[in-house]
Amino acid sequence: MSPKFCILTSWVETIVSSLPRAQDFKHLDLRGCVELSANAFIETLFGWWEDNQRADLPWRLTQDPYKIMVSEFALQQTQVSRVVPKYEAFIDAFPTVISLANTSPAEVITLWQGLGYNRRALWLHQAAVHIAATADFTYSPEELIALKGIGDYTSRSIPIFAFNTDIAAIDTNIRRVLIYHKFATETTKPRELQTIADRLLPRGRSRDYHNALMDYGALYLTAKFTGIASVSRQPKFSGSKRELRGIIIRLLTERAHSKAELRKAAGRDCTAVIKDLERDGMIQIKGTTVSLQS
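The structure corresponding to this sequence follows.
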């Protein structure tokens, strides 16, 4: 072997040995690495997630599409800490899509109390009824998005977490991560953002990738740290129609009430809200008596 070849070999070995290994990314602060290539971003993300993942979340312990659907409905605009006990109680009560379909809307709404946005409970029940009646339902994005309460994100997240389907989903946390690392901007349109997310997706690892993005955005690249505003913001709750809806539903989970009783308990006129709840299919009215939909 010539001296020149030996020198070249030694030089190559030195360069290779100095390159970062996958485990070297585990403790790297991604917040200091704003601009990364797609491959570097994904490898660094997985390195961080290996040490920081929320592996104990109950819906991450299953690949049952029904149970994942329950979790995705519950997690819409609701903090994870509030969802965990309710999810576990819900699955205990209704362990299968058939058991949920066979119960009454009133029972579902009653168990849902504490999560807010009670229409989600009704829509989840309606989805279960539809799925139970459809023998060949596959939980595909095309089938799911046709159901009430399921939008673009949820129609994709269910097959991702249930089947590891190679599609990309975008929620508030994921959008914030993509913007922070310069793959998008705050003015990037939804369709373009979806194209970017599709391009970044590591094939064959969709479930882990999306869980990692969720944890990274929720625990690490928070809205407070990044200053990146959410596309949608929740309106003020106190004194709102949503608060009044919640008060009425909570009262009706205890027993049927007259309209006058509801008005007295709420401390304000609730005629319009009662009409809205009836139109939404949440309640039923017989004479002056109001009760949950049976």
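The first helix runs from residue 3 to 18.
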